[in-house]
Amino acid sequence: VGTVYQLVITISILVSQILGLESVLGTEALWPVLLALTVVPGIFQLATLPLCPESPKYLLLSKGQEIEAQRSLTWLRGTIEVHDEMDDMRSEYEAMKMLPKVTLKDMFMNSMLRIPLFIAMMVMICQQLSGINAVMFFSTKIFKMAKLDDMDAQYATLGMGSINVLMTVVSLVLVERAGRKTLLLIGFSGMCLTCVLLTICLAYVNSAAWVSHFSIFLVIFFVVMFATGPGSIPWFLVSELFNQSARPAATSLAVAVNWTANFIVGIAFLPLQVRCVSK
């Protein structure tokens, strides 16, 4: 289920890449329309979220509202046969009563929480500092560096987005069979090797035609390695490292670190690329 989050992200990226084509909305005249379309999901959520119930676990574990939790669970499951799941939640609720509440300070001061928090934050940092969003943000520019013309570079970006969706679907199956650690090691190792080879190829892209073609393959393979594990696993790994009492604080910290690293990559890539080229 945790991998579905990343799947929705990759599908959204693909949709934005399609809309951003010059033949669709990616022109100087139409880009304001493309930008304005981002308000549509927000309006949809504002209209539909008030109709949705609160999380059953939140109602029972955090608020102690058992009846409301059962109503919410019944609505979500579409059946009144939720007794077994409610029993599991009651057992978790009773166990939580024995645990102290965890604050953000406790996450750093308690050694039992500090180590899994460090793991969760490092996985999030590695996901973003791997450079995946630099590839996503500037993929068309990278393909142009590999000697593709404007339209071919845009369609190559579209193909890359499609492969990203496909491999994320594949990871839905692999994540339970191969394990989290194995997929993370394979994914990050493959991305590291690909980055080294891509750097070499882009430095000698004018030497032969096959070098530019191989560079395009490497960019796509980089995305394949990311989608294999590093793209989806960090999002649900956090919840697996902590119990219910520590999970909200841990998730908040890990996600904050993830988006901070994302922001740094987004603003740093082009200046670094310009300085490296100038040297």
Automatic annotation (TrEMBL):
<dbReference type="InterPro" id="IPR005829">
    <property type="entry name" value="Sugar_transporter_CS"/>
</dbReference>
<protein>
    <recommendedName>
        <fullName>Major facilitator superfamily (MFS) profile domain-containing protein</fullName>
    </recommendedName>
</protein>
<dbReference type="InterPro" id="IPR005828">
    <property type="entry name" value="MFS_sugar_transport-like"/>
</dbReference>
<feature type="transmembrane region" description="Helical">
    <location>
        <begin position="115"/>
        <end position="135"/>
    </location>
</feature>
<keyword id="KW-1133">Transmembrane helix</keyword>
<dbReference type="Pfam" id="PF00083">
    <property type="entry name" value="Sugar_tr"/>
</dbReference>
<keyword id="KW-0472">Membrane</keyword>
<dbReference type="GO" id="GO:0015149">
    <property type="term" value="F:hexose transmembrane transporter activity"/>
</dbReference>
<keyword id="KW-0812">Transmembrane</keyword>
<feature type="transmembrane region" description="Helical">
    <location>
        <begin position="182"/>
        <end position="205"/>
    </location>
</feature>
<feature type="transmembrane region" description="Helical">
    <location>
        <begin position="250"/>
        <end position="272"/>
    </location>
</feature>
<feature type="transmembrane region" description="Helical">
    <location>
        <begin position="155"/>
        <end position="175"/>
    </location>
</feature>
<feature type="domain" description="Major facilitator superfamily (MFS) profile">
    <location>
        <begin position="1"/>
        <end position="279"/>
    </location>
</feature>
<keyword id="KW-0813">Transport</keyword>
<dbReference type="InterPro" id="IPR020846">
    <property type="entry name" value="MFS_dom"/>
</dbReference>
<dbReference type="InterPro" id="IPR036259">
    <property type="entry name" value="MFS_trans_sf"/>
</dbReference>
<dbReference type="InterPro" id="IPR045263">
    <property type="entry name" value="GLUT"/>
</dbReference>
<feature type="transmembrane region" description="Helical">
    <location>
        <begin position="211"/>
        <end position="238"/>
    </location>
</feature>
<dbReference type="GO" id="GO:0016020">
    <property type="term" value="C:membrane"/>
</dbReference>
<feature type="transmembrane region" description="Helical">
    <location>
        <begin position="29"/>
        <end position="52"/>
    </location>
</feature>
<dbReference type="InterPro" id="IPR003663">
    <property type="entry name" value="Sugar/inositol_transpt"/>
</dbReference>
